[in-house]
């Protein structure tokens, strides 16, 4: 296994769970921008083994961890909604 920031998995998974309830564009560009915004505000969690992945998962079970991810995602949605980078339908 190579080095991996498992925070990417957590943020992507959480966005997938809640995106239908968010008032935002769901195109690939906007999704990537929301995820990038969130990841730039959260501490990375790098692992290089399956044991490390399991340990990181145990550390994600706190409610504060989830609140931090949700906060970063909601902030990302607000920023991306104001400044979308995707092409508009009329272009």
Keywords for this structure?
single chain, 91 residues, mainly alpha, 4 helices, elongated
Structure commentary:
There is one protein chain. The protein has 4 helices and 2 strands; from the N terminus they run βααβαα. With 91 residues, it is mainly α. A two-stranded antiparallel ribbon has the order 1-2.
Q: Summarize this, please?
A:
The chain has 91 residues and is mainly alpha-helical.
Give a topology summary.
Blueprint: E1 4-5, H1 6-18, H2 28-39, E2 46-47, H3 50-58, H4 63-82
Antiparallel strand pairs: 1-2
Helix pairs in contact: 1-2, 2-4
The fraction of residues in strands falls at: under 5%
Secondary structure: helix percent: 55-70%
Mean pLDDT: 90
Strand order of the largest sheet: 1-2
Largest sheet: 2 strands, antiparallel
Radius of gyration: 14 Å
The number of E-state strands comes to: 2
* Uncertain segments: none
N-to-C series of helices and strands:
EHHEHH
Q: List the total number of helices.
A: 4
**Structurally, how many domains make up the residues?**
1
Which term fits the overall shape? elongated
Query: How far is the first residue's CA from the last residue's CA?
Result: 43 Å
Query: Helix/strand/pairing class, anyone?
Result: mainly alpha
